[in-house]
Amino acid sequence: MSQIKNSKIINTRHKKSVWAIILNDGQLTCKGPGYGTWGTKEIKLAASVTDFWAGASSLGPAILYQVEDNHYVKKLRFDTGQEIVGGKAFSGIPTRVVVDPHEYAVNFFVTLDNGKNLYVYVDGWGKMKIE
What we know:
Elements lengths: L7 E7 L2 E8 L2 E5 L10 E5 L4 E7 L2 E8 L2 E7 L6 E9 L2 E8 L3 E8 L4 E7 L4 E3 L1
Antiparallel strand pairs: 1-2, 2-3, 3-4, 5-6, 6-7, 7-8, 9-10, 10-11, 11-12
């Protein structure tokens, strides 16, 4: 029997809606909330992922994930799973990530191993900001 590596699940929640973000052997997926065209299907988000952080707003889940020393962010539409906004957020190794979900957006506060602090913001209307 083979050993499962890098297995992690985060159930992101906004009120009664729950999106399961699943990392299994480097494959990152998101399971739908049970309604809309998404239903409960799992959609593939990325491969070769080593870690991730996630939160949800009323407009859907947001995921910050790591591939090697690069980090990417995605915001998915709450009922279809379609990517609203996404892209490369930063390079480096985080020592701390704080997820701060709001009604329409999700913030990620990141501290890198070099001491630099970053703010990653994604919202349900397609805005992505990295400072």
